[in-house]
Design brief:
four-stranded antiparallel sheet; 239 residues; five-stranded mixed sheet; mainly beta; globular
Length: 239
């Protein structure tokens, strides 16, 4: 009996950032120099280990409660849906986020620029999409930060999102930006996406209906996994 072999998935052209983008300097150091070789997904790649609902709590989605005190900055709600290429919801998908604090600094040993750390903000959270593909986080709006790509280079305020499929080998990573940020047109990472319409899909939408009076502003950000309206994705080690 022949071994199980499932279709492989090739990186769509023109939608996602090229692996080597001259404006984004560090990609030239890590991008492959040989043509990529598509690998088929066998049984190992499409099964386990699975993350059950009992391993993700409701509190994991509230980054303002994760470190034992109220963090500094503007409290926001980030919510949306994970959809497939036909607009159908993708339920029970693990969504993780990580971000800088309100001053634009990550809680990471290699982030040592002159912005204050917030003792009450870890900058990481996770949740599972519900039956309708919906996810929701409570967090703090991140600040911009310098990143050394070129003279006076600043990253726009952004939140990283990581989505896992049926197994941990199936992972997609993207970024969410905020509307009307003047740094987005200057950002080499955003500009590495060839298609202007695709770049716009990385900008969240202010959602007044989901905004909670006297408590938090809300932003909507849907993630489409495939198709013409797919959300641009990046490598898991992006800045």
């Amino acid at each position: 009996m022949s071994s199980l072999e499932l279709p492989s998935y090739e990186r769509p052209r023109g939608l996602h950032p090229p692996l080597a983008s001259p404006g984004y300097g560090s990609t030239l150091l890590r991008a492959p120099t040989q043509p990529l070789v598509p690998l088929p997904h066998n049984l190992t790649e499409v099964t386990g280990p699975l993350l059950g609902e009992g391993r993700v709590s409701e509190a994991d989605a509230d980054l303002t409660l994760a470190a034992g005190g109220e963090p500094q900055g503007q409290r926001i709600i980030v919510q949306g849906r994970v959809l497939d290429g036909d607009g159908r919801p993708v339920p029970h998908t693990l969504v993780e986020i990580w971000q800088a604090n309100a001053a634009g600094r990550y809680r990471h040993a290699r982030d040592n620029w002159a912005a204050p750390l917030d003792p009450h903000f870890t900058g990481v959270g996770r949740t599972l999409t519900d039956e309708t593909g919906h996810y929701r986080f409570v967090t703090i709006r991140p600040g911009a930060y310098p990143w050394g790509n070129h003279h006076n280079a600043w990253r726009p305020a952004h939140i990283h999102l990581s989505l896992f499929g049926r197994a941990f080998t199936q992972r997609l990573v993207t970024q969410m930006y905020f509307p009307d940020d003047p740094l987005i047109p200057l950002d080499p990472i955003a500009n590495s996406i060839p298609d202007e319409k695709a770049r716009q899909r990385l900008i969240s939408r202010f959602d007044l209906d989901a905004t909670v009076p006297h408590w938090a502003l809300a932003y909507e950000f849907d993630v489409v996994l495939r198709g013409r309206s797919a959300t641009p994705m990046e490598e898991p080690h992006e800045d």
